[in-house]
Amino acid sequence: MTLYLLKFSACLGLIYLFYKLCLEGENFHVFKRYFLLIGLVLSTLIPLISFEIPWYQEHVMEIVLPIKNANAIDGNIPTIEPIQPSDEPTVAMPIGFYIYGLILGVLLIRFLRGLYLITRKAVTNEKLIHQNAHLVLIEEKIAPFSFCNYIFLNKSIYQTKGIESDILLHELTHVKQKHTWDILFVEVFLIVFWWNPILYLYKKTIQLNHEFLADREVLAHTQVPTYQQLLLQNATGNALYLTSSSTFSITKKRFLMMTHHTSITARILRGVACLPLILVLIARFSDWSLGQKNEKKIQKPMPVAIDVTNQKVKYKISKIFLAKGEKNPVVIKDYSELTKVELEALKHPLMFTIERPTDEMLKIWTHPRCGIWINEKHVPYQTLEKYKSEDFSHYFVSRLGKNAQVGKRRYQIDLMTNDYFENVYKKEALEKPLIVYSVGKGANQEQYRIELIKE
């Protein structure tokens, strides 16, 4: 979750920075409006996007070092019992979670209260219809402001002096272009991500662009100096939370924008520049992972046929992992002497599978704590630096017992190169099939192997 929030903040920050540097001062406000809204959505979604890159690999086995409860390896993979979850899992919620929830709750109540106050004013006060908008006449001394399809005006001023047509047109533009929905949209994000300072700047930027849009509509019918003087004369009173008002941010930026012109070429270039930004954000902040591509080259497991009726076959039974000081109880048996457990084990033939280590594993194993055997020969651990994952076809990993540890070495890694796996290991395994089976459960479990010996 923390990683997602960091990626979300980084995406939003870069989009906001790009807007401030490249777009805010230009006079194509409709494009800027949708850029800001889409940018907010992309910042939310990009960290959730996951791409899987197909690659040619027959089989992938994920492993994490260290492997616990394993002894020195002797050519076989130890059985690792999964950790059983507790019957009564308990999750301790951090205090920060409760603080976050408390603040979120307060902001949600504030948001709902703001909607309630505006709705109550719209319902309880006198209303007039004007160009598909509702003019709400209220007693309070307040600057004209709009919310959804309502324009709120001071009743006494409207009935005595009237509202200047330019101011009314400004608020009508907010209504017709549905700017309220933009504000409500970003307000929801502010409730959820209240801790993010970029969002507060982002909201002000969206509101300022709304003013640019409304000002442009008014300036199509009046002169710039006249309209600027009118704004300054009406810059009194306060608008309500969640509303749009002509008195919002009467700043130098807004006045300069009234006389600024952006050429068509500049609009196209700046608009096209948004595409590389989006591609960079997707490449940097989405989740990329290596997948597995289904190809005909994938090698399937190869069972070894065992002829149990062959009278010239003997079975060598031996224990795999021995306790300290324990001797291996090797027994040679005929088929008729095999136990039920051993007969059952014969039903599961040896399987050849491609189990390649990943490049990340090779990096982990290039360490003094790992003893490296390649093709059954011990080599320095630094030798792995010369190899890539695709150079190997099989690997075994185990944790060494105390009596088998040498220096810093705590793990034994057995690797087989592609050539050795195909031409040596598989050939020997076919000549002398090996079957591994377990007896007992839990801490009392023991592993044995059956080797077929041809006379």
TrEMBL record:
Signal sequence, renumbered to the chain: none
Xref: Pfam families: Peptidase_M56
Residues annotated as domain Peptidase M56: 161-240
Spans through the membrane: 6-22, 34-56, 91-112, 183-202
Origin: domain of life: Bacteria
Database matches in InterPro entries: Beta-lactam_resp_regulator, Peptidase_M56
Keywords: Membrane, Transmembrane, Transmembrane helix
Record protein name field: M56 family metallopeptidase
Organism: Flectobacillus rivi
